C-alpha cells in the first residue's frame, strides 16, 4: 500500500472506516496481527511497543510446539496492549508469530476500493476491473469476465459487478498460504489444528488428517458460539447493569451533596460572622466526604468499566468473526479467540449486580440541632454526621459461629461498627451470610438474617449434615474481619433405649472363663475391659451383645456371673 493511501485516514478523519485503521499509527492496517487480548494492530506497531517484562526461555518442548517449528528457546517478551492495557505475551518469533487479522485486511481492501477508485484486473493486469468472481476472489475486466464465463471450469462461478459488492459493504479476499504464495488455505489439518493449502497437505502434512474447511467449521465455530452465548453474553449484561448502578449512585451522591450544601447554607444565614465561618467549615467537611466517596466510586467504576471493556471486546470480536468471517478466517483466528474467550469466562472481575452496593451518600446526614462547639466565642450548632460502617471493625458475637449440632438451630449476632469502633445506631446494611460444607461443596445451609435496626443483625441457621463448614459473613460485599470462619457441626447424640451388661471379667475378679448371668459371652474377652486390671491394655468395655459401652461402671466383685442378669444392667448414651 502506498504512503499516500496510508495517510488518507489522517486527512479524511471520521469518514474512514475505523475498523480499517490501526489505533497506534492512525493509518490503514499494514499486516494486522491479533494480540491475545483480541485487539489488532500493525505488525510494525506491535514490534515498536516497549517491552513490559521478559521471561527466560523454556527448557522443554511439547509436541504442538515441535510441529509448529517455533524457536521456544528464545526469550518471551510481554507488552501492554495499547487499547486495554492488558499484559500480553508475544511469541518467541515476535509479531510474525501472531495470527493475522484477515477481517481487518478485508476492511482495508474495501476502504481502498472506496477511496482509490477503479482497480486493475487481477488476471490480465491491463483493463479496469468492473466485476469480481466471488468464488475465485479475483477482480475482472470486461474481457476477462467474458472469458471467465466461457471456460467450462468457471462457468458456474458467481460473478458480480463491483459496484453492487461495494454497496453491500464487504468484499471477501482469499486467505493465501504463507509458505506457498498463490495457494489458498482450503484445508484444515486436525493434528496440527491449523488451516493449510493443498501443497502443504501433500508435503508437510501428508501423514496428517486434513479435511476441507467447510467440513469442520461448524464444530469449531460452535465452541466460540457456546462461550459467547452461554457464558460471556450473560456476564456482559451483568457488567452493564452493575456499571449503570454505579453511575446512578454517582449522580445520587452528587445530588445529595448539593441538597445538603443548600440546607447548610440556609441554616447558616441566620447567624453572624461566627455562624458564617461555621457554615464554611461544614461545607469543607462535606466536600471532603464527597471527594472521599467519589474516589471510592471512581475506583469501583473503573474496575467495572475495564472488565466490561475486556468482555465486550472479546464478545464483539468473536461475534464479528462468526458473522463476517469466512470459514478459513474463523479457523485462522480460532486459536487466539478461544484462548481469550476462555480466559475471560474463567477469570476476571465478575460481580453479580445484586452484590454491588456502592456508597450513594446515604450515610451522610446533617444534624442541625447538635451542638458544634464555639466559633470565635459564639456557640454554634449543626454538624455533618458521616458515620459509616467500617467492615474491618465489625464483630461477631455468639458461639453458634464456631460450634453447632446436626439438626439443631444455631445463631450468632453480627454487630456493625463505625471506624471508631462504636456500634452503629441504625440498620439497613447489605449483609450476606453463606455457609458451605468444606468437603461437600453442594451442601449448603440456608441462613436467615434479621435486621435489628440498631446496627446489629441476628443470623440463624440449621445444619443438616455434620462436618466442617466455611461461613462467609459479608457487609457491602466485603468480608468482615475473620471471615470466612470455620464452623464445626457435630453429629447429633441419640439416647440408647436398650441396656448394656457390665464387664463379667471385672465382676468376677479377673476370671477369664467368667460368663454373664444372661449366659452371654464377652466378644473380645478380657481385652475389652478398660478398668486397668493387670494385663489389660485399657480399651473400652464390650457388652455381652458386642456393642461398645461408652459410659459404664463395673459392678462389685460380689456380683458374680451367677446372679440374675437384670441385677447388673446399665443404661448408657451413645
From TrEMBL:
Alphabetized Pfam families for the sequence: Filamin, zf-B_box, zf-RING_UBOX
Domain named B box-type: residues: 116-162, 172-213
Reactions listed under catalytic activity: S-ubiquitinyl-[E2 ubiquitin-conjugating enzyme]-L-cysteine + [acceptor protein]-L-lysine = [E2 ubiquitin-conjugating enzyme]-L-cysteine + N(6)-ubiquitinyl-[acceptor protein]-L-lysine
Entry GO MF terms: ubiquitin protein ligase activity; zinc ion binding
Filamin repeat copies, ranges: 386-489
GO CC terms: nucleoplasm
Record InterPro entries: Filamin/ABP280_repeat-like (IPR017868), Filamin/ABP280_rpt (IPR001298), Ig-like_fold (IPR013783), Ig_E-set (IPR014756), TRIM45/56/19-like (IPR047153), Znf-RING_euk (IPR027370), Znf_B-box (IPR000315), Znf_RING (IPR001841)
Chain ranges of the RING-type domain: 22-85
Alphabetized UniProt keyword annotations: Coiled coil, Metal-binding, Repeat, Zinc, Zinc-finger
A biological process term (GO) from this entry: nervous system development
Residues spanning the membrane: none
EC number: 2.3.2.27
Coiled coil: 236-263
PANTHER family assigned to the protein according to its UniProt record, in alphabetical order: BONUS, ISOFORM C-RELATED (PTHR25462), E3 UBIQUITIN-PROTEIN LIGASE TRIM45 (PTHR25462:SF291)
Family that this chain belongs to: Belongs to the TRIM/RBCC family.
Record protein name field: RING-type E3 ubiquitin transferase
Organism the protein comes from: Acanthochromis polyacanthus
Lineage of the species this protein comes from: Eukaryota, Metazoa, Chordata, Craniata, Vertebrata
Amino acid at each position: 500500500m502506498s504512503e499516500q493511501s496510508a495517510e488518507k485516514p489522517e486527512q479524511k478523519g471520521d469518514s474512514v472506516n475505523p475498523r480499517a485503521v490501526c489505533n497506534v499509527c492512525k493509518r490503514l492496517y499494514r499486516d494486522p496481527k491479533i494480540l491475545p487480548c483480541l485487539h489488532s494492530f500493525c505488525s510494525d506497531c506491535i514490534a515498536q511497543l516497549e517491552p513490559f517484562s521478559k521471561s527466560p526461555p523454556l527448557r522443554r518442548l511439547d509436541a504442538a510446539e515441535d510441529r509448529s517449528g517455533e524457536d521456544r528457546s528464545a526469550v518471551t517478551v510481554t507488552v501492554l496492549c495499547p487499547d486495554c492495557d492488558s499484559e500480553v505475551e508475544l511469541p518467541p518469533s515476535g509479531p510474525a508469530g501472531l495470527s493475522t487479522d484477515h477481517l481487518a485486511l478485508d476492511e482495508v481492501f474495501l476502504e481502498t476500493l472506496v477511496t482509490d477508485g477503479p482497480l486493475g484486473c487481477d488476471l490480465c493486469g491491463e483493463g479496469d476491473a468492473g466485476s469480481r468472481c466471488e468464488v475465485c476472489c479475483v477482480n475482472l475486466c470486461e474481457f476477462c469476465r467474458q472469458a471467465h464465463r466461457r471456460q467450462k471450469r468457471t462457468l458456474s462461478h458467481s460473478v458480480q459487478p463491483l459496484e453492487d459488492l461495494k454497496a453491500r459493504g464487504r468484499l471477501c479476499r482469499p486467505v493465501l498460504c504463507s509458505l506457498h504464495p498463490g495457494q489458498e488455505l482450503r484445508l484444515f489439518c486436525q493434528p496440527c489444528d491449523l488451516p493449510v493449502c493443498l501443497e502443504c497437505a501433500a508435503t508437510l502434512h501428508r501423514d496428517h488428517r486434513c479435511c476441507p474447511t467447510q467440513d469442520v467449521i461448524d464444530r469449531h465455530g460452535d465452541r466460540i458460539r457456546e462461550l459467547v452465548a452461554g457464558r460471556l453474553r450473560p456476564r456482559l449484561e451483568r457488567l452493564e447493569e452493575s456499571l449503570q448502578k454505579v453511575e446512578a449512585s454517582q449522580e445520587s451522591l452528587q445530588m445529595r451533596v448539593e441538597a445538603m450544601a443548600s440546607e447548610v447554607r440556609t441554616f447558616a444565614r441566620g447567624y453572624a460572622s461566627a455562624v458564617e465561618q461555621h457554615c464554611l467549615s461544614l461545607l469543607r467537611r462535606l466536600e471532603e466526604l464527597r471527594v472521599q466517596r467519589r474516589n471510592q466510586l471512581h475506583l469501583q467504576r473503573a474496575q467495572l468499566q475495564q472488565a466490561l471493556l475486556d468482555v465486550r471486546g472479546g464478545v464483539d470480536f468473536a461475534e464479528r468473526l462468526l458473522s463476517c468471517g469466512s470459514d478459513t478466517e474463523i479457523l485462522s483466528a480460532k486459536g487466539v479467540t478461544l484462548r481469550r474467550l476462555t480466559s475471560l469466562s474463567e477469570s476476571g472481575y465478575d460481580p453479580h449486580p445484586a452484590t454491588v452496593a456502592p456508597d450513594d451518600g446515604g450515610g451522610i446526614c446533617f444534624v442541625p440541632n447538635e451542638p458544634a462547639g464555639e466559633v470565635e466565642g459564639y456557640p454554634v450548632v449543626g454538624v455533618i454526621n458521616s458515620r459509616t460502617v467500617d467492615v474491618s471493625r465489625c464483630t461477631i458475637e455468639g458461639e453458634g459461629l464456631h460450634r453447632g449440632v446436626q439438626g439443631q438451630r444455631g445463631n450468632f449476632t453480627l454487630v456493625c461498627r463505625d471506624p471508631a469502633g462504636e456500634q452503629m445506631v441504625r440498620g439497613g446494611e447489605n449483609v450476606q451470610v453463606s455457609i458451605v460444607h468444606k468437603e461437600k461443596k453442594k451442601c449448603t445451609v440456608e441462613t436467615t438474617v434479621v435486621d435489628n435496626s440498631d446496627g446489629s443483625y441476628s443470623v440463624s441457621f440449621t445444619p443438616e449434615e455434620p462436618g466442617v463448614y466455611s461461613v462467609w459473613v459479608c457487609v457491602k460485599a466485603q468480608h468482615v474481619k475473620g471471615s470466612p470462619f470455620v464452623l464445626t457441626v457435630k453429629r447429633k447424640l441419640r439416647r440408647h433405649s436398650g441396656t448394656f451388661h457390665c464387664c463379667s471379667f471385672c465382676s468376677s475378679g479377673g476370671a477369664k472363663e467368667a460368663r454373664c448371668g444372661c449366659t452371654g459371652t464377652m466378644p473380645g474377652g478380657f481385652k475389652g475391659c478398660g478398668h486397668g486390671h493387670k494385663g489389660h491394655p485399657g480399651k473400652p468395655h464390650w457388652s455381652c451383645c458386642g456393642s461398645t459401652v461408652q459410659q459404664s461402671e463395673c459392678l462389685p466383685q460380689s456380683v458374680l456371673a451367677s446372679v440374675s442378669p437384670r441385677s447388673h444392667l446399665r443404661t448408657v448414651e451413645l
